[in-house]
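Subject: design request, 297 residues
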């Protein structure tokens, strides 16, 4: 499903470029340099997308085991290739469009400026979107499941403060009878207890009945967790879940849930982070959300 979404995402800019090419090639006086540059940029885009598809299908152990910023190197490589694909397409479009407007004068700086400006506008819009408050007030909310999205586990199998805040919010919702069961998600890095199991042990110490706690320890990303919930937890289209996370993370989670047609409400934890950390997290979420919107990653 994600691969089809990626192809659809690439179809429209490529189709637009093809139309412009046809218009240019039909002209009597057409600079050969433009043809060469166009083919080079298009070739770069197609090579990048081809390599991204290859690396997304094959499993290279050294890449999957190397983790940077909680993401394995394989995913980072695929994301980088897809970003290069998009940048190549945007630059090619601005290059040809600028050539058309300048009536045959080849320039390289203006298309580059246009590309940077276009990307900046997209990033700014996405960052602004992460600032929107889409959290639901727990008053009046009812659901069978409250789903805790996994987060970092520290040494000695202790949940990080952010993760602890999410777990505490789930406990609070359970004690208020907002949710009947708590579903914990998240796998583990090598040598660590899984995020889900760490959260389960934490809740048991808080006297939450074990029969009300459910876990899965196979997922390693927010997309995988939402997909798992949709496939294995929700029994009908109308059944909803409450997704428990942090304010900087919530909007991307809700976007993923909408994509997978998972009816959900978002509730944020009470854990407070300072402005610097909040900015860092939101910048990270900005690019993560962009990758999801553009490529389903």
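Subject: RE: design request

Done. Sequence follows.
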């Amino acid at each position: 499903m994600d691969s089809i979404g990626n192809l659809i995402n690439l179809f429209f800019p490529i189709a637009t470029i093809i139309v412009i090419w046809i218009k240019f090639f039909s002209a009597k006086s057409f600079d050969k340099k433009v043809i060469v540059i166009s083919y080079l940029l298009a070739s770069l885009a197609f090579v990048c997308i081809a390599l991204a598809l290859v690396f997304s299908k094959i499993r290279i152990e050294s890449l999957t085991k190397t983790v940077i910023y909680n993401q394995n190197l394989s995913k980072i490589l695929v994301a980088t290739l897809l970003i290069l694909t998009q940048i190549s397409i945007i630059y090619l479009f601005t290059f040809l469009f600028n050539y058309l407007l300048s009536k045959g004068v080849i320039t390289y700086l203006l298309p580059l400026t246009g590309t940077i400006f276009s990307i900046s506008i997209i990033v700014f819009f996405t960052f602004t979107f992460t600032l929107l408050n889409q959290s639901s007030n727990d008053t009046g909310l009812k659901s069978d499941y409250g789903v805790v999205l996994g987060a970092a586990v520290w040494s000695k199998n202790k949940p990080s403060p952010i993760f602890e805040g999410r777990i505490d919010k789930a406990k609070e919702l359970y004690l208020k009878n907002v949710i009947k069961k708590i579903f914990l998600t998240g796998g583990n890095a090598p040598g660590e207890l899984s995020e889900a199991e760490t959260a389960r042990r934490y809740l048991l110490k808080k006297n939450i009945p074990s029969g009300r706690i459910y876990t899965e320890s196979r997922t390693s990303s927010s997309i995988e967790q939402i997909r798992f919930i949709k496939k294995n937890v929700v029994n009908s289209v109308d059944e909803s879940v409450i997704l428990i996370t942090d304010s900087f993370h919530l909007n991307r989670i809700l976007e993923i849930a909408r994509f997978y047609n998972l009816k959900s409400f978002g509730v944020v934890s009470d854990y407070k982070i300072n402005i610097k950390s909040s900015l860092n997290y939101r910048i990270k979420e900005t690019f993560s959300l962009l990758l999801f919107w553009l490529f389903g990653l």
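Residues 1-5 have pLDDT under 50 and may be disordered.
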